[in-house]
């Protein structure tokens, strides 16, 4: 099967140029002017941008959390991904006390494989070392293509947190096997102290979710994680960076030559903590929470100057009735928001508005996640890479509504927001999966991406 996309503007990290692009049997086979190739399918992309499919390096699909499970399973989450130009998603299977990594991964793979509409990869969350035996499994996990592990420095009561000693053991072992440690950084003791105080005082609205985990609560943990990574000379990837002080510390360590990678999410670039004062503030509850204007500005600056490496979503939606559990007690609101379908349109819209270049948007959403996480065949438009391609109309304005999305959730924090420019077609390995508003893919088409170690 050969696909030929003609007359579009191809966007890579370093340049934009007019050319045709051909995909044969799922792989990009040629890029050039006026390609004279016989194809089964020819697409005219005149006036459009031709982009590599995005990689959402941070989703929680069918995740048991907050007394329920995230509203998008593997089918809905990857269907929505396809419709937002995301051609690979990373999910976060969670290892639990008494369970092994491979066991955890295989269970999730069995769930995901028949449902995945786009390609997928796994980072594995480690919550318990099982008397250190888990560390002996790291090499086997890497051999299976799982080359990143994640630790929570929060969620103590939920049994998901690791202490500093455990984090350092994980950092060291991950480094030994050529893997990367991802970290969710917030200070659990401060959060618990604040929660206890606020509840005692009857302060129960969503605003107190933010006040229980404000800027300095995240900053302490960001800095602590950076400190340990620097001290043992191990690479570290900080997920969903949301605060200025932590960002600056991590960026400084990077400038000193340490292998520190920084991810942020569109919600921290778009909203501030003011959303928690709204009547529907609970719908915006995620952790870490959105921060103040100063942090938002610092994140944009870091997007522009290169300090931030990736933008991913932390996609973890819950239904309205589940968010409502916390109407009178913010601690009962399941943490998480939707985003996988909005990531690429949002960042590309920023490019369309001139905040960043289209090349930088491609770097943040496709090339860098592929490079950092060892997805050899993904993340760029070049001969030999997978035919993961998005055709993007820069003139098509789109107002986000829940109805127009392709998830299973019943509300979104992105409701009513207009983005300038929108994907019109998405191809995964040369197969059309999204066509002008419609999902046209197939559950089970998505492949597990076995990643290669020692990439950073
Ligand atoms: N934060 C969220 O908001 N949801 C899922 C997990 C997390 O860390
Ligand atoms: Zn997190
Ligand atoms: Zn997350």
Mind explaining what this structure looks like?
The protein is α/β, with parallel strands linked by helices and 456 residues long. It has 13 helices and 21 strands. Strands 1, 2, 3, 4, 5, 18, 19, 20 and 21 form a nine-stranded mixed beta sheet that branches. A seven-stranded parallel beta sheet has the order 10-12-13-14-15-16-17. Strand 19 and strand 20 form a beta hairpin. The mean pLDDT is 98. Residues 184, 239-240, 314 line the site of one zinc ion (ZN).
Provide the descriptors you would attach to this structure in a database record.
binds zinc ion; globular; about 450 residues; binds dihydropyrimidine-2,4(1H,3H)-dione; nine-stranded mixed sheet; 21 strands; alpha/beta
Total strands: the figure is 21
Helix content: 25-40%
- What Rg, in angstroms, do the CA atoms define? 21 Å
Low-confidence spans: pLDDT under 50, at least 5 residues? Answer: none
Kindly name the structural category.
alpha/beta
Give the amount of beta strand, in percent. Answer: 15-25%
Overall geometric form: globular
Largest sheet: 9 strands, mixed
Termini separation comes to 35 Å
The unique ligands bound to this protein are: dihydropyrimidine-2,4(1H,3H)-dione, zinc ion
Average pLDDT for all residues: 98
* Count of alpha and pi helical runs: 13
């Amino acid at each position: 099967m050969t696909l030929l996309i003609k007359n579009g503007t191809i966007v890579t990290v370093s340049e934009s140029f007019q050319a045709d692009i051909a995909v044969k049997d799922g792989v990009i086979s040629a890029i050039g002017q006026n390609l004279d190739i016989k194809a089964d399918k020819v697409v005219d992309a005149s006036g459009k941008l031709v982009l590599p499919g995005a990689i959402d390096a941070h989703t929680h699909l069918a995740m048991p959390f907050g007394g329920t499970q995230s509203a998008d399973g593997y089918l809905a989450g990857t269907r929505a991904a396809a419709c937002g130009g995301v051609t690979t998603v990373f999910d976060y299977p969670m290892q639990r006390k008494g369970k092994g990594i491979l066991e955890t991964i295989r269970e999730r793979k069995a769930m995901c494989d028949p449902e995945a509409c786009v390609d997928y990869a796994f980072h594995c969350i480690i919550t318990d070392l099982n008397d250190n035996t888990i560390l002996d499994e790291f090499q086997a996990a890497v051999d299976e293509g799982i080359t990143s592990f994640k630790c929570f420095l929060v969620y103590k009561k939920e049994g998901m947190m690791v202490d500093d000693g455990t984090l350092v053991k994980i950092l060291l072992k991950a480094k030994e096997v050529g893997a990367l440690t991802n970290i969710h950084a917030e200070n659990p003791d401060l959060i618990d102290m604040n929660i206890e105080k606020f509840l005692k005082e009857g302060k129960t609205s969503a605003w107190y979710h933010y006040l229980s985990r404000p800027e300095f609560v995240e900053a302490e943990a960001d800095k602590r994680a950076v400190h340990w990574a620097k001290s043992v000379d191990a690479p570290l990837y900080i997920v969903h960076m949301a605060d200025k002080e932590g960002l600056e510390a991590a960026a400084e360590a990077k400038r000193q030559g340490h292998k520190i990678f920084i991810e942020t999410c569109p919600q921290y670039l778009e909203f501030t903590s003011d959303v928690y004062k709204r009547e529907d503030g609970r719908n915006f509850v995620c952790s870490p929470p959105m921060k103040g204007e100063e942090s938002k500005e610092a994140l944009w600056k870091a997007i522009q100057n290169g300090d931030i490496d990736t933008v991913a979503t932390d996609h973890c939606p819950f239904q309205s009735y589940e968010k409502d559990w916390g109407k009178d007690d913010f601690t009962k609101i399941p943490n998480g928001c939707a985003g996988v379908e909005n990531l690429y349109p949002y960042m590309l819209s920023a490019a369309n508005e001139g905040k960043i270049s289209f090349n930088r948007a491609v770097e943040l959403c496709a090339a860098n996640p592929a490079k950092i996480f060892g997805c050899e065949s993904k993340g760029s438009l070049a001969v030999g890479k997978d035919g993961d391609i998005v055709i993007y109309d820069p003139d098509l304005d789109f107002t986000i509504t829940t109805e127009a999305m392709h998830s299973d959730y019943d509300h979104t924090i992105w409701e009513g927001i207009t983005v300038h420019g929108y994907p019109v077609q998405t191809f995964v390995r040369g197969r059309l999966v999204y066509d002008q508003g419609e999902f046209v893919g197939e559950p089970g088409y998505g492949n597990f991406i076995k990643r290669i170690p020692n990439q950073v």
